[in-house]
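G., the chain you wanted modeled:
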Amino acid sequence: MRKLIEFDDDTFDKLKQLGRDRMATLQELADEAFADLLKKHGIPIDLKDALRRSARLQEATRPQDRAKPRTTAANAARKRGRKR
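Predicted structure as tokens:
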């Protein structure tokens, strides 16, 4: 899909120079800039990124492994200061 973006002359000259310095096209610079912008706002860039985020959300909402609760007798013995 093609879209037009307008730059002022000074900005365009700087982007062209940056592209020359990095041996990148203006399209590559734009792709990098928009990917960074989406990442900054928490929007997945592609399917792989969306799946990674989804997996992290599932891990965060999953109940954590909790220690096995002590039995009543073990609690009573601990309170009395003895090991059972």
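The helical segments are 9-22, 26-40, 47-61, 72-80.

Shout if anything looks off.
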